[in-house]
Amino acid sequence: MLAFNKILRFEKLIQNPVCLFRSLHKAPIPVTWEKPKIGWTKLNFDGSSKGKAGKASIGGLFRNHKADFLLGYAEPIGRANSIIAELAALRRGLELVLENGWSDVWLEGDAKTLLQIIAQRRQIRCAEAQRHISHINLIIPEINNCILTHIYREGNRAADKFAQMGHLCGKPQVWQHIPPNQVLSIMHEDAEDADYESSGGSRLKKHH
Question: Is 0.70 topped by the overall pTM?
Answer without folding.
Answer: yes
